[in-house]
Design a protein that fits this description.
- 80% of the residues lie in helices and 0% in strands.
- The protein has 121 residues and is mainly alpha-helical.
- It is elongated and about 75 Å long.
Length: 121
């Protein structure tokens, strides 16, 4: 799960940065405001890569997805991109868990097969 979720979060890092460039064209926003908000969101997307498997990591990832969709009020195309990344996040979590379960099942089978095989000396 960690690999899939981290890949999604790194993709978001770049999308947030590009959205910041687009948001700079808004005359109502100052450059410092845009890059403060974008910088915090970019930092969070990278920091979440390290805590995604810890308790609360998935919930924080969902919070980032909601924030990404909400950023559509500033950059309208982010409604679409945020929804796409929310779907990718769901798929990363859902299929990542299935992959982790399959890996654990195969490891248990391999350990069981190894313990039932007689030692040949």
């Amino acid at each position: 799960m960690r690999t899939l979720c981290s890949s999604t979060l790194i993709g978001e890092f770049f999308v947030i940065g590009f959205a910041g460039l687009v948001a700079m064209k808004d005359p109502d926003l100052t450059t410092s405001t845009v890059w403060t908000v974008s910088g915090i969101a970019m930092f969070l997307s990278v920091a979440l890569c390290g805590v995604v498997t810890r308790p609360g990591g998935i919930a924080l990832g969902w919070a980032l997805q909601i924030a990404l969709i909400a950023s559509g009020f500033v950059v309208p195309s982010m409604f679409f991109l945020g929804a796409i990344f929310a779907a990718l996040w769901w798929a990363s979590v859902h299929y990542g868990r299935k992959i982790d379960e399959a890996k654990a099942r195969f490891a248990a089978q391999a350990a069981q097969a190894g313990s039932t095989t007689p030692d040949v000396a």
